[in-house]
Amino acid sequence: MAQPPVIVWFRDDLRLADHPALHAALRTQQPLVCVYVMDDGSNGVRPPGGASRWWLAQSLRALAADLSAHGQRLILRRGAAASVIPALAQDSGASAAFWTRRYDQPGIAIDNQVIERLKTLGLSGGTCPGGLLAEPHRIANQAGAPMKVFTPFWKRLLALGDPRKPLPAPQALPPPVNMSSEHLDDWRLEPMHPDWAVGLRECWSVGEAAARVRLSDFLDDIKGYKDHRDRPDMLATSRLSPHLRFGEISPNEIFHTARFAAEAGRANGADTGKFLSELGWRDFSHYLLHHFPDLATKNFNARFDAFPWRDDSAGLRAWQRGLTGYPVVDAGMRQLWHTGWMHNRVRMVAASFLIKHLLIDWRHGERWFWDTLVDADPASNSASWQWVAGSGADAAPYFRIFNPVLQGEKFDPHGAYVRQWVPEIAGLPDSLIHKPWRASPLELVEAGVALGTTYPAPIVDHDTARQRALDALRTIRV
């Protein structure tokens, strides 16, 4: 009698290497049913935004190709996972299912529902770690409560010892079980009319192999990362965030590969340590979301519930389109729209501008980033927006208001980043590229800039906006 299969349920872990759930399934030595479920947004699961949907489509194609090369196939099903997985188990005659657990409350609830429904069918369900360096339940303060400051959190995580070493990709997989699959194109994850994903296709290679190439290329050039990571005019960051978001590479593999590179002399300790701490920030964001599930919609600091936000649809639209009149902000917003990604330093400057220069509720910005970022992560996106707003855990104080001119001059000193994304002012000299309104009429003519026509004048004065933001802050102080 043929052995019953086991299900491997792929989620935000679209890879074969360092996949504990896949390895657990393989240890049974039974046939596999490899499945991805496109959840319909039930049980509080946040549907992916437009850019993330595009990335997901490419990542699923890459995973399907990798599985095919190993003698397997990817089954696609759409619907509530709590119903789809048990139904698939019945249809396939499976004896068990394995998957990577998530740590957000909707994800935990779905896990529990699937496990209970499988039990009623006499099947076992096994969840495995694989998405974080350390699971949230392993870290707490001395009182046993959740930690709210990054530095002690990171120290506590490192004190646990090195994260587990990554598992190798299997050499081969059992042949597939004959099961029906939906067609990826029918899910309409990619834009059609209009096709706004042209820039995304130009800028990204998607999938597990691409993630590993990106990591290798980054580690080849990691020297100077600590000093240069804030420079948007330089290719000094890893740009691994979308690969991590969809689990095309695990944080454990990145951690140990970077550590090995440092030990081999490819990078110094300061650069590697700073890079690894960025992985720590990702863990911290998921830790916060685990303990505070309303992070994307509710102020972490309840004092901000009384903050006097402004209703400014025109300002929001100018910010979204990259037409604020502040070049570094506009460059970032245009880079985001074209590539689905924005340099981290510019993310902070752009977010600060929306929140503090325009006094627009941070949730509007969080939703825009959710829809336009290929790396839109439910934990990092919300935690980062609250950090900039001053309402989050370990947040920058609200009175820290980025001056977009000084930020541009410091981190894009020659204007290369602005010239790339705001070409209509590219003719201005370095001394004026971040403040075109300071140019004389002759300098504007020579640069081919008609302020207010070819490029907008600032939609708000920095000094006035700063004072307005500080005045607003005083209204909620207790």
Overall description:
- Strand 1 (6-10), helix 1 and strand 2 (32-38) form a beta-alpha-beta unit.
- Helix 5 crosses helix 11, helix 11 (269-291) crosses helix 16 (380-389) and helix 14 (344-357) packs across helix 16.
- The longest helix is centred in the middle third of the chain and has 23 residues, at 269-291.
- The protein is mainly alpha-helical and 478 residues long.
- It has 3 domains: 6-130, HUPs (Rossmann fold, 3-Layer(aba) Sandwich); 132-163 and 208-291, Serine Threonine Protein Phosphatase 5, Tetratricopeptide repeat (Alpha Horseshoe), CATH 1.25.40.80; 302-474, DNA Cyclobutane Dipyrimidine Photolyase, subunit A, domain 3 (Orthogonal Bundle).
- The relative contact order is 0.11.
- It is globular and about 85 Å long.
- Strands 3-2-1-4-5 form a 5-stranded parallel sheet, with helices on both faces.
- It has helices at 20-27, 50-69, 81-92, 105-120, 150-159, 198-203, 208-220, 225-228, 241-245, 251-263, 269-291, 313-321, 327-339, 344-357, 362-372, 380-389, 404-411, 416-421, 441-447, 462-474; strands at 6-10, 32-38, 74-78, 96-100, 124-128.
- 46% of the residues lie in helices and 6% in strands.
- It has 20 helices and 5 strands.
Q: What is the top-level CATH class of the largest domain? A: Mainly Alpha
The percent of residues in helical segments reads 40-55%
Computed Rg: 24 Å
Question: What is the fold named in CATH at topology level of the largest domain?
Answer: DNA Cyclobutane Dipyrimidine Photolyase, subunit A, domain 3
Identify the overall geometry: globular
- The averaged pLDDT comes out at 95
Distance between the termini: 72 Å
Number of helices: 20
Extract low-pLDDT stretches: none
User: What is the domain tally?
Assistant: 3
The CATH architecture assignment of the largest domain turns out to be Orthogonal Bundle
Report the sheet-strand fraction.
Answer: 5-15%
Order of helices and strands: EHEHEHEHEHHHHHHHHHHHHHHHH
Oligomer: single chain
CATH superfamily of the largest domain: DNA Cyclobutane Dipyrimidine Photolyase, subunit A, domain 3
Report the major sheet: 5 strands, parallel
